[in-house]
Amino acid sequence: MPQRASVMTGPRRPLEIRDFDDPELGPGETWLEIEASEVCGTDVHLFHGRLAGVPWPIIPGHVSVGRVRETRGPGVDATGRPLAEGDTVTFFDVVGTCHRCFHCSAARQPNLCPHRRVYGITFSALEGLFGGWATSMRLTADTSIFKLPEGLETADVIGGGCGLFTGFGAVERSELRPGDTVVVQGSGPVGLAAAAFARVRGCGVLVVIGDPDERLDLATAMGADVTLSVSRTSGPDRSARVADLTEGRGADVVIEASGNPAAIPEGFALLRDGGTYVVAGHYTDVGPVSINPHLDINRKHATVKGRWGTELPHVSRALNLLARHRLPFARVIGGEYGLEETNRALADVERLAVTKAIIVASRDRATQAEGAGRG
Q1: Whose CB among 281, 337, 342, 359 lies 3.0–4.6 Å from 6's, allowing a Cys bridge?
Q2: pLDDT of residue 111
Q3: Which domain holds residue 226?
């Protein structure tokens, strides 16, 4: 039976539906029937042509959840749990690291390997089904596959998407201590995940800055004590509120998850002397911003860190915490779209009409069946 996928042929070109042959699996490979794949900010950046080296055409969808249809792997997932046909899984989207370069060996940061490949981004559609906006997907032998922990459903995981793991990584990078006051700038998927995992890690007062109100409500559900609307407050208002909450000191930890350059100077203003600032939202270049190195960093004695993407351990650890604490990421899903609706899904994500859009290929079959029934 032919497989179908939504293909992005180039920047700002309408996506096309194409048919693909069933994948021929090699040793160690796995074939997934995709249950849901996210539409994230990276996909919007891809569509706008803001990522270099993309091998057009591509099948987007770098974070997905699927059911194992066939596997020629070792019979266990990346954590050693038994893995069989019919199991529901997700996977780490980075593969093909060389294990020999400085980042792989000396630095132990394989996510920065210059040879790495990423599903839905650096695989061409001419190579086959290597993206999640499809009915099925082929996973290479070196893919780290994770069986969903007991109690987790597809919506729980895909509602967080890649932001689930990036937000987890940002909190880990912050090294926040129990009781620390934390400010998260941004209430999108990364910001919501950062807020949730900061709460799980035992932060004290948790403040989330963002918009619109629906996202701020989600931030409260994730554990935020205070939410501040960007549109209804000014920068000085927000700084004054954080100062009030911290006896004038400022936040111990600030996590930038907005992707807006204007957030950076404000983030430093919200940070206490000796605090830690983690910048996680700027995955692509959205332009420069002015800061004062003396006042913002040196005199403030600030620790400033970046968080680029996700590392392999973040996936298993985030999934385990998600299952243990029943974090409400399924509520983040704002819309489900079939393969035929991926252009609309991209547009809705770009204009912030939904917090998390997901692609569900089975919707096309249901819609077709409904149409046939009416006929």
Answers
A1: 342
A2: 87
A3: 162-306
